[in-house]
Amino acid sequence: MSKIEKYILNPETLMVELREEKKHRFLKVLGVVLSGAVLFCLYLWIYVYVLGQDLPKTALLKRWNADWLSRMEQMEGRLDRYEEVLDLLEVRDDRIYRSVYGVDGIPAAVREGGLPPVERYPGLETLERSNLLRRTMTRLDRLQKMAFVQSKSLDDLESLAQTAGDKAAHIPAIPPMNTDPDTYRMTSPFGGRSDPITGAGKMHTGMDFACPPGNPVYATGDGTVILVESDFYGYGNHIEIDHGFGYESRYSHLEAMYVFPGQKVRRGDCIATSGRSGRVTGPHLHYEVMYRGEYVNPAAYMDLDLSPEDYAAMVRKPFGR
Asked: Which of 34, 78, 207, 258, by CA, is between 20 and 30 Å from 296?
Protein backbone atom coordinates (compact mmCIF):
# COMPACT_ATOMS: atom_id res chain seq x y z
CA MET A 1 0.00 0.00 0.00
CA SER A 2 1.50 3.32 -1.08
CA LYS A 3 1.98 5.90 1.55
CA ILE A 4 -0.38 8.86 1.19
CA GLU A 5 1.60 12.09 1.46
CA LYS A 6 0.49 15.73 1.41
CA TYR A 7 2.71 18.83 1.22
CA ILE A 8 1.39 22.05 2.66
CA LEU A 9 2.85 25.53 3.16
CA ASN A 10 3.31 26.60 6.72
CA PRO A 11 2.42 30.32 6.75
CA GLU A 12 4.50 30.97 9.83
CA THR A 13 7.73 29.42 8.65
CA LEU A 14 7.08 29.83 4.90
CA MET A 15 8.32 26.27 4.60
CA VAL A 16 6.68 23.36 2.75
CA GLU A 17 5.92 20.59 5.20
CA LEU A 18 4.93 16.96 4.73
CA ARG A 19 1.82 15.82 6.57
CA GLU A 20 0.06 12.44 6.53
CA GLU A 21 -3.64 12.14 5.89
CA LYS A 22 -5.91 11.86 8.95
CA LYS A 23 -7.54 8.81 7.39
CA HIS A 24 -4.28 6.98 7.39
CA ARG A 25 -3.67 7.92 10.99
CA PHE A 26 -7.12 6.55 11.92
CA LEU A 27 -6.33 3.27 10.26
CA LYS A 28 -3.16 2.94 12.25
CA VAL A 29 -4.99 3.58 15.51
CA LEU A 30 -7.71 1.10 14.56
CA GLY A 31 -5.12 -1.53 13.82
CA VAL A 32 -3.51 -1.05 17.20
CA VAL A 33 -6.89 -1.39 18.94
CA LEU A 34 -7.81 -4.52 17.02
CA SER A 35 -4.44 -6.06 17.74
CA GLY A 36 -4.90 -5.35 21.44
CA ALA A 37 -8.37 -6.90 21.38
CA VAL A 38 -7.05 -10.03 19.69
CA LEU A 39 -4.25 -10.32 22.21
CA PHE A 40 -6.72 -9.82 25.08
CA CYS A 41 -9.05 -12.53 23.73
CA LEU A 42 -6.07 -14.85 23.30
CA TYR A 43 -5.06 -14.14 26.89
CA LEU A 44 -8.58 -14.94 28.14
CA TRP A 45 -8.68 -18.15 26.13
CA ILE A 46 -5.37 -19.31 27.57
CA TYR A 47 -6.35 -18.21 31.09
CA VAL A 48 -9.75 -19.92 31.08
CA TYR A 49 -9.47 -22.92 28.76
CA VAL A 50 -5.78 -23.78 28.97
CA LEU A 51 -4.97 -22.90 32.56
CA GLY A 52 -8.51 -23.69 33.81
CA GLN A 53 -8.88 -20.50 35.78
CA ASP A 54 -12.20 -18.68 36.42
CA LEU A 55 -12.92 -15.19 35.36
CA PRO A 56 -13.18 -12.73 38.27
CA LYS A 57 -16.93 -12.39 37.92
CA THR A 58 -17.37 -16.16 37.62
CA ALA A 59 -15.21 -16.70 40.70
CA LEU A 60 -17.29 -14.14 42.60
CA LEU A 61 -20.55 -15.82 41.55
CA LYS A 62 -19.18 -19.20 42.60
CA ARG A 63 -18.26 -17.82 46.02
CA TRP A 64 -21.77 -16.39 46.37
CA ASN A 65 -23.25 -19.72 45.28
CA ALA A 66 -21.14 -21.63 47.81
CA ASP A 67 -22.19 -19.17 50.51
CA TRP A 68 -25.90 -19.67 49.71
CA LEU A 69 -25.50 -23.44 49.57
CA SER A 70 -23.90 -23.30 53.01
CA ARG A 71 -26.83 -21.23 54.27
CA MET A 72 -29.29 -23.70 52.74
CA GLU A 73 -27.57 -26.58 54.52
CA GLN A 74 -27.71 -24.66 57.80
CA MET A 75 -31.39 -24.00 57.18
CA GLU A 76 -31.96 -27.71 56.57
CA GLY A 77 -30.38 -28.41 59.96
CA ARG A 78 -32.61 -25.84 61.63
CA LEU A 79 -35.68 -27.29 59.91
CA ASP A 80 -34.74 -30.70 61.28
CA ARG A 81 -34.68 -29.26 64.82
CA TYR A 82 -37.93 -27.36 64.28
CA GLU A 83 -39.63 -30.53 63.03
CA GLU A 84 -38.45 -32.43 66.11
CA VAL A 85 -39.86 -29.74 68.41
CA LEU A 86 -43.14 -29.59 66.47
CA ASP A 87 -43.46 -33.39 66.50
CA LEU A 88 -42.95 -33.36 70.28
CA LEU A 89 -45.65 -30.70 70.65
CA GLU A 90 -48.02 -32.79 68.52
CA VAL A 91 -47.44 -35.89 70.65
CA ARG A 92 -48.03 -33.93 73.86
CA ASP A 93 -51.06 -32.25 72.33
CA ASP A 94 -52.77 -35.48 71.26
CA ARG A 95 -51.70 -37.83 74.07
CA ILE A 96 -51.66 -35.48 77.05
CA TYR A 97 -53.30 -32.09 76.62
CA ARG A 98 -56.29 -33.13 74.50
CA SER A 99 -56.67 -36.37 76.44
CA VAL A 100 -56.89 -34.43 79.70
CA TYR A 101 -59.86 -32.50 78.37
CA GLY A 102 -61.48 -35.54 76.78
CA VAL A 103 -61.25 -34.40 73.16
CA ASP A 104 -60.06 -36.41 70.18
CA GLY A 105 -56.61 -35.96 68.70
CA ILE A 106 -56.12 -34.10 65.44
CA PRO A 107 -55.89 -36.47 62.42
CA ALA A 108 -52.50 -36.70 60.74
CA ALA A 109 -53.98 -35.55 57.42
CA VAL A 110 -55.09 -32.30 59.05
CA ARG A 111 -51.78 -31.75 60.80
CA GLU A 112 -49.87 -32.24 57.54
CA GLY A 113 -51.79 -29.31 56.10
CA GLY A 114 -53.26 -31.17 53.13
CA LEU A 115 -50.47 -30.25 50.72
CA PRO A 116 -51.39 -31.58 47.23
CA PRO A 117 -48.87 -33.88 45.51
CA VAL A 118 -48.14 -31.43 42.66
CA GLU A 119 -45.15 -29.38 41.60
CA ARG A 120 -45.54 -26.15 43.57
CA TYR A 121 -42.41 -24.38 42.32
CA PRO A 122 -42.12 -24.86 38.54
CA GLY A 123 -39.97 -21.72 38.24
CA LEU A 124 -37.13 -23.41 40.12
CA GLU A 125 -36.66 -26.28 37.67
CA THR A 126 -34.09 -24.44 35.54
CA LEU A 127 -31.90 -23.45 38.49
CA GLU A 128 -28.79 -25.33 39.54
CA ARG A 129 -29.33 -27.37 42.70
CA SER A 130 -33.08 -26.87 42.23
CA ASN A 131 -33.88 -30.10 44.09
CA LEU A 132 -32.36 -28.75 47.30
CA LEU A 133 -34.16 -25.44 46.94
CA ARG A 134 -37.52 -27.08 46.16
CA ARG A 135 -37.15 -29.48 49.09
CA THR A 136 -36.36 -26.62 51.45
CA MET A 137 -39.28 -24.53 50.20
CA THR A 138 -41.64 -27.51 50.52
CA ARG A 139 -40.49 -28.19 54.08
CA LEU A 140 -40.99 -24.54 54.98
CA ASP A 141 -44.54 -24.66 53.59
CA ARG A 142 -45.28 -27.87 55.47
CA LEU A 143 -43.90 -26.57 58.76
CA GLN A 144 -45.82 -23.33 58.36
CA LYS A 145 -49.11 -25.17 57.89
CA MET A 146 -48.39 -27.62 60.73
CA ALA A 147 -47.46 -24.75 63.04
CA PHE A 148 -50.74 -23.02 62.15
CA VAL A 149 -52.74 -26.17 62.97
CA GLN A 150 -50.85 -26.58 66.25
CA SER A 151 -51.48 -22.93 67.11
CA LYS A 152 -55.23 -23.37 66.52
CA SER A 153 -55.19 -26.53 68.63
CA LEU A 154 -53.55 -24.67 71.52
CA ASP A 155 -56.17 -21.93 71.18
CA ASP A 156 -58.89 -24.57 71.48
CA LEU A 157 -57.19 -26.09 74.52
CA GLU A 158 -56.93 -22.65 76.11
CA SER A 159 -60.67 -22.26 75.66
CA LEU A 160 -61.23 -25.67 77.24
CA ALA A 161 -58.88 -24.81 80.09
CA GLN A 162 -61.07 -21.87 81.02
CA THR A 163 -63.85 -24.32 81.83
CA ALA A 164 -61.58 -27.04 83.23
CA GLY A 165 -62.57 -26.12 86.75
CA ASP A 166 -65.93 -27.74 86.06
CA LYS A 167 -64.38 -31.04 84.99
CA ALA A 168 -64.20 -32.46 88.51
CA ALA A 169 -67.96 -32.01 88.84
CA HIS A 170 -68.67 -33.57 85.45
CA ILE A 171 -66.66 -36.78 85.76
CA PRO A 172 -68.98 -39.65 86.83
CA ALA A 173 -67.18 -40.16 90.12
CA ILE A 174 -69.73 -41.43 92.66
CA PRO A 175 -71.73 -44.67 92.87
CA PRO A 176 -75.14 -44.49 91.17
CA MET A 177 -76.96 -45.50 94.37
CA ASN A 178 -76.49 -45.23 98.11
CA THR A 179 -73.51 -47.21 99.37
CA ASP A 180 -75.42 -48.70 102.27
CA PRO A 181 -74.60 -52.44 101.92
CA ASP A 182 -78.11 -53.29 103.12
CA THR A 183 -79.67 -51.69 100.02
CA TYR A 184 -77.78 -53.47 97.23
CA ARG A 185 -75.48 -56.36 96.37
CA MET A 186 -72.75 -56.27 93.73
CA THR A 187 -73.53 -59.23 91.48
CA SER A 188 -71.37 -58.68 88.40
CA PRO A 189 -68.34 -56.40 88.05
CA PHE A 190 -66.85 -54.99 84.85
CA GLY A 191 -65.01 -57.54 82.66
CA GLY A 192 -65.43 -60.97 81.11
CA ARG A 193 -68.13 -63.29 82.39
CA SER A 194 -70.61 -65.97 81.38
CA ASP A 195 -73.88 -64.59 80.08
CA PRO A 196 -76.50 -65.25 82.83
CA ILE A 197 -79.09 -66.30 80.24
CA THR A 198 -77.13 -68.12 77.51
CA GLY A 199 -74.06 -69.13 79.53
CA ALA A 200 -71.77 -68.02 76.69
CA GLY A 201 -68.61 -66.05 77.45
CA LYS A 202 -69.18 -62.34 76.98
CA MET A 203 -67.69 -59.00 77.95
CA HIS A 204 -69.68 -57.30 80.69
CA THR A 205 -69.40 -53.59 79.92
CA GLY A 206 -70.63 -52.25 83.25
CA MET A 207 -71.44 -53.07 86.88
CA ASP A 208 -74.61 -54.73 88.22
CA PHE A 209 -76.13 -53.59 91.50
CA ALA A 210 -78.76 -56.13 92.57
CA CYS A 211 -81.46 -54.35 94.59
CA PRO A 212 -85.23 -54.33 95.03
CA PRO A 213 -87.25 -52.35 92.46
CA GLY A 214 -87.77 -48.72 93.41
CA ASN A 215 -84.28 -48.08 94.81
CA PRO A 216 -83.29 -44.44 93.97
CA VAL A 217 -80.73 -44.04 91.17
CA TYR A 218 -78.61 -40.87 91.11
CA ALA A 219 -76.63 -39.05 88.43
CA THR A 220 -72.95 -39.72 89.04
CA GLY A 221 -71.76 -36.41 87.60
CA ASP A 222 -72.98 -33.13 86.13
CA GLY A 223 -74.12 -33.35 82.54
CA THR A 224 -76.92 -33.32 80.00
CA VAL A 225 -79.43 -36.12 79.48
CA ILE A 226 -79.05 -37.29 75.88
CA LEU A 227 -81.29 -40.38 75.87
CA VAL A 228 -84.37 -41.59 77.73
CA GLU A 229 -85.58 -44.80 76.10
CA SER A 230 -87.60 -47.92 76.76
CA ASP A 231 -87.30 -51.28 75.02
CA PHE A 232 -88.48 -54.78 75.79
CA TYR A 233 -85.12 -56.46 75.28
CA GLY A 234 -81.60 -55.28 75.99
CA TYR A 235 -81.29 -52.33 78.35
CA GLY A 236 -85.01 -51.99 79.00
CA ASN A 237 -85.79 -48.57 80.45
CA HIS A 238 -82.50 -46.71 80.34
CA ILE A 239 -81.01 -43.22 80.55
CA GLU A 240 -77.80 -41.86 79.06
CA ILE A 241 -76.01 -38.71 80.27
CA ASP A 242 -73.29 -36.80 78.46
CA HIS A 243 -70.94 -35.39 81.08
CA GLY A 244 -68.65 -33.61 78.64
CA PHE A 245 -64.87 -34.00 78.54
CA GLY A 246 -65.39 -37.30 76.69
CA TYR A 247 -67.45 -39.01 79.45
CA GLU A 248 -70.90 -40.60 79.22
CA SER A 249 -72.83 -42.80 81.63
CA ARG A 250 -75.74 -45.23 81.15
CA TYR A 251 -78.31 -46.44 83.70
CA SER A 252 -80.29 -49.50 82.61
CA HIS A 253 -83.18 -51.85 83.58
CA LEU A 254 -84.95 -48.99 85.36
CA GLU A 255 -88.47 -48.86 86.70
CA ALA A 256 -89.36 -45.16 86.74
CA MET A 257 -87.45 -42.39 84.90
CA TYR A 258 -87.66 -38.78 86.05
CA VAL A 259 -85.67 -36.90 83.40
CA PHE A 260 -86.05 -36.01 79.73
CA PRO A 261 -83.60 -35.55 76.84
CA GLY A 262 -81.84 -32.21 76.95
CA GLN A 263 -82.31 -31.78 80.70
CA LYS A 264 -79.34 -30.54 82.71
CA VAL A 265 -78.58 -32.63 85.77
CA ARG A 266 -76.12 -32.31 88.61
CA ARG A 267 -74.23 -34.96 90.50
CA GLY A 268 -76.53 -36.41 93.13
CA ASP A 269 -79.80 -35.68 91.31
CA CYS A 270 -82.18 -38.61 91.51
CA ILE A 271 -82.94 -39.46 87.89
CA ALA A 272 -84.76 -42.81 88.20
CA THR A 273 -85.50 -45.86 90.30
CA SER A 274 -84.12 -49.33 89.79
CA GLY A 275 -86.25 -52.08 88.26
CA ARG A 276 -86.17 -55.23 86.15
CA SER A 277 -87.08 -54.01 82.67
CA GLY A 278 -85.40 -55.38 79.55
CA ARG A 279 -83.25 -58.50 79.31
CA VAL A 280 -82.69 -59.46 82.96
CA THR A 281 -82.91 -62.44 85.29
CA GLY A 282 -83.73 -60.35 88.34
CA PRO A 283 -84.13 -56.75 89.53
CA HIS A 284 -80.90 -54.76 89.40
CA LEU A 285 -79.24 -51.61 88.08
CA HIS A 286 -76.79 -52.02 85.22
CA TYR A 287 -74.42 -49.01 85.23
CA GLU A 288 -71.89 -48.17 82.50
CA VAL A 289 -69.27 -45.47 81.96
CA MET A 290 -67.89 -44.60 78.52
CA TYR A 291 -64.81 -42.47 77.90
CA ARG A 292 -64.27 -41.17 74.37
CA GLY A 293 -66.55 -43.88 73.02
CA GLU A 294 -64.90 -46.78 74.84
CA TYR A 295 -66.31 -48.70 77.81
CA VAL A 296 -64.24 -48.26 80.96
CA ASN A 297 -64.46 -49.83 84.40
CA PRO A 298 -66.87 -47.71 86.50
CA ALA A 299 -65.20 -48.96 89.70
CA ALA A 300 -62.13 -46.90 88.77
CA TYR A 301 -64.17 -43.72 89.20
CA MET A 302 -66.08 -44.39 92.40
CA ASP A 303 -65.53 -45.22 96.05
CA LEU A 304 -67.89 -47.98 97.17
CA ASP A 305 -66.47 -47.66 100.68
CA LEU A 306 -67.99 -44.19 101.00
CA SER A 307 -70.15 -44.11 104.12
CA PRO A 308 -73.94 -43.99 103.59
CA GLU A 309 -74.07 -40.77 105.60
CA ASP A 310 -71.49 -39.03 103.39
CA TYR A 311 -73.27 -40.31 100.29
CA ALA A 312 -76.63 -39.07 101.56
CA ALA A 313 -75.11 -35.62 102.09
CA MET A 314 -74.27 -35.40 98.38
CA VAL A 315 -77.68 -36.27 96.95
CA ARG A 316 -80.78 -34.13 96.68
CA LYS A 317 -84.29 -35.18 97.63
CA PRO A 318 -86.87 -35.57 96.45
CA PHE A 319 -85.31 -36.55 93.15
CA GLY A 320 -83.24 -33.36 92.89
CA ARG A 321 -85.39 -31.81 90.15
From this structure: 258
φ, ψ at 52 (rounded to 5°): 70, 25
Determine the pLDDT at residue 175.
Answer: 94
Q: What are the sequence ranges of the domains in the chain?
A: 5-50, 71-162, 169-314
Task: Please name the fold of domain 169-314.
Answer: Glucose Permease (Domain IIA) (2.70.70)
**Identity of residue 308:** P
CB 205 within 8 A of CB 195: no
Residue 1's pLDDT band (boundaries 50, 70, 90)? very low
Q: How far is CA 232 from the centre of its chain?
A: 45
> To which H or E segment does residue 20 belong?
strand 15-20
- For residue 16, the SS3 value is strand
Distance CA 207, CA 302 (A): 12
**pTM of structure:** 0.55
